[in-house]
Amino acid sequence: MTDTLIPFDDVLKDFDPALGLEVHVELNTATKMFCGCPTEFGAEPNSQVCPTCLGLPGAMPVVNGKAVESAMRIGLALNCTIAEWCRFARKNYFYPDMPKNFQTSQYDEPIAFEGYLDVDVDGETFRVEIERAHMEEDTGKTTHIGGATGRIHGADHSLVDYNRAGIPLIEIVTKPITGTGAKAPLVAKAYVAALRELILALGVSDARMEQGSMRCDVNLSLAPAGSGVLGTRTETKNVNSLRSVERAVRFEMGRHAGVLLGGGKVLQETRHFHEDTGSTSPGREKSDAEDYRYFPEPDLVPIAPSREWVEQLRTTLPEPPAERRARLQADWGFSDLEMRDAAASGALSLIEETVAAGAPPQAARKWWLSELARRANDLGVDLTDVGVTPAQVAEVQKLVDAGTVNDKLARQVFEGLYAGEGSPAEIVAARGLAVVSDDGALSAAVDAAIAANPDVADKIRDGKVAAAGALIGAVMKEMRGQADAGRVRELILEKLS
């Protein structure tokens, strides 16, 4: 059955959207939430398991203290109240991704609650209220083999990897986000982006959405415009990119409106998001809390963090990302667009370290967002994994500033750094990349270029100085890009004036 989609602008004529965002963050602890198994990503399937995370009889869980600390720091950074006493619960359901047939989570007593995060969209600030941030464990990964959709329906068989089962998770749940109107998709995207930036600043997770260490469930409902009520919601599960969060909201707004304007009722259900089309498809009818038969976990003691511990953790919080961006932008003199691009690329810290190592801010930004960004894209890795350090980037720029190399030659220096050929200065020496500024060699190359391009030379003699660019290009080509372009221009004009 094909969904009827109402154009976005038409949706807003009749309906008010309400958002609810549930973000799951895998913590970067060395071991799992309730056992000592490692949490390394990409290990051989089912190689990081033990009787506890497999739910074998007699195995007893123990709470990971580092995970509790990380949960409290996240709560504090989100302006939440940290519980004086809380406990875990069993969330019961039958599905093969959790071998013990329940997930250890928190139900009515979360570690952190009643917070907020402010986000900016096109100069307008929206306060997203946080209902709760609670601790739980991740589930295993199920892969369905055969069939056309990759889902369980129609599959020949399924494979389950329990390495991920038991990894510490923090689930951050917003209150209904209303009053966003046409900006609803952008507010959703901005909130997840701001939350990811905060998580990275805290250092509690790598927050790699493409690897699943940060995932967003997008709840959306529509209500008649001006009614002030909440409609029936759907929950689009495991959306794994910022762009997809925005697209999921847009699609569901159009789909909900199509159902409602067609006289139907929106079904409360989970939905699957499809990256290729930006659409969603039905998952399962959404369960309510009572369907999970929550009850307190009998094998774990309650958690009662002292107020002294909470206040000590508050002192470890980093500078809020928005304040940091404003400070750096003022220090560096970047435009709003330049700062936005630097932040979106994940290069802020790298630029900051490069500037601290002695490079001008604009030069640091240029290298990280051009040459090094291209390499990261080619390799399919983050900027931090391109094989070049901020100190090396600063050293390359110092060679440019000194006139030892130009920008074109500097790119060859980076190639040498990728290959591990030594320091930038050693690479320049070994590869013979230094700019030629000797007037004798340059003068001979200029004479040859003039002789080979008499028409261009005549234009310059007639006062058309801009034509000198063609002769400069010829000299640079002849000298493999190693000529001092400024000095070449001076010589050309001296000879043809």
TrEMBL record:
Reaction(s) the record says it catalyses: L-aspartyl-tRNA(Asn) + L-glutamine + ATP + H2O = L-asparaginyl-tRNA(Asn) + L-glutamate + ADP + phosphate + 2 H(+); L-glutamyl-tRNA(Gln) + L-glutamine + ATP + H2O = L-glutaminyl-tRNA(Gln) + L-glutamate + ADP + phosphate + H(+)
Entry annotated with the keyword Acetylation: no
Transmembrane segments: none
Residue ranges constituting the Asn/Gln amidotransferase domain according to the UniProt record: 349-496
InterPro entries xref list: Asn/Gln-tRNA_amidoTrfase_suB/E, Asn/Gln-tRNA_Trfase_suB/E_cat, Asn/Gln_amidotransferase, Asn/Gln_tRNA_amidoTrase-B-like, GatB, GatB_Yqey_C_2, Gln-tRNA_amidoTrfase_suB_CS, Gln_synth/guanido_kin_cat_dom
EC number assigned by the record: 6.3.5.-
Pfam families: GatB_N, GatB_Yqey
Keyword line: ATP-binding, Ligase, Nucleotide-binding, Protein biosynthesis
Keyword set includes Aminoacyl-tRNA synthetase: no
Group of enzyme by EC: ligase
Subunit-structure text: Heterotrimer of A, B and C subunits.
Protein's job: Allows the formation of correctly charged Asn-tRNA(Asn) or Gln-tRNA(Gln) through the transamidation of misacylated Asp-tRNA(Asn) or Glu-tRNA(Gln) in organisms which lack either or both of asparaginyl-tRNA or glutaminyl-tRNA synthetases. The reaction takes place in the presence of glutamine and ATP through an activated phospho-Asp-tRNA(Asn) or phospho-Glu-tRNA(Gln).
Family: Belongs to the GatB/GatE family. GatB subfamily.
Protein name: Aspartyl/glutamyl-tRNA(Asn/Gln) amidotransferase subunit B
Organism name: Nocardioides panacihumi
Encoding gene, per UniProt annotation: gatB
